[in-house]
Design goal:
Layout lengths: L1 H20 L6 H4 L6 E6 L5 E10 L4 E8 L5 E9 L4 E8 L4 E9 L2 E5 L3 E2 L5 E10 L5 E9 L2 E13 L2
Antiparallel strand pairs: 1-2, 1-11, 2-3, 3-4, 4-5, 5-6, 6-7, 7-9, 8-9, 9-10, 10-11
Length: about 170
């Protein structure tokens, strides 16, 4: 009888433990960037095709992986995006085939995910930071706008693309 009780306790403990760990990244915070998941064609503000982007949930839904390729195939990049529960922010690390990289963090506000970099000094001694905003539109498209800010003011828009879901 004692053996049976021990076996039942061990089985219950294993089931409870596996159920607890089955959905580590299931809170609403981990899903706040899900609107970007999918395969997309991306156009510029004039409607010209600029590339294709695939964003997929990875690592059991705990992260998003982005795979970008420009329409001419010359520019590629990837990012890993995840919700950092310790500081309660989303973080992104972008790396491209030109050797460029960008680290961003931030959160969703309404229908927008807004991520920014730390401030950095340019060769011209400007103190700037990057801000990228993804806006979920009512028709299901997503607008991505990458701005450079100096003292909180936009000084350059590096990218303004409209995502059209194909999958």
């Amino acid at each position: 009888m004692k053996k049976l009780i021990v076996i039942l306790f061990m089985t219950y403990g294993a089931i409870a433990f596996s159920q607890k760990d089955a959905c580590v990244c299931c809170s609403d915070a981990y899903h706040s960037f899900d609107f970007w998941v999918g395969t997309w064609t991306v156009t510029d503000s004039n409607g010209n095709l600029v590339g294709k982007n695939t964003i997929e949930k990875v690592e059991g839904g705990c992260a998003l992986r982005e795979r970008w390729i420009s329409s001419n195939g010359k520019s590629t990049g990837t990012s890993l995006n995840f919700y950092n529960g310790e500081n309660e922010q989303w973080e992104q690390l972008w790396i491209d085939n030109s050797g460029g990289h960008l680290k961003l963090s931030g959160n969703r506000k309404g229908n927008q995910m807004i991520l920014s970099s730390e401030e950095k000094s340019t060769p011209e001694d400007q103190i700037v930071k990057n801000r990228i905003t993804w806006t979920l539109n009512d028709n299901g498209t997503v607008r991505q706008q990458w701005e450079v800010l100096e003292e909180g003011q936009v000084i350059t828009v590096l990218f303004d693309g409209l995502y059209h879901k194909i999958e």
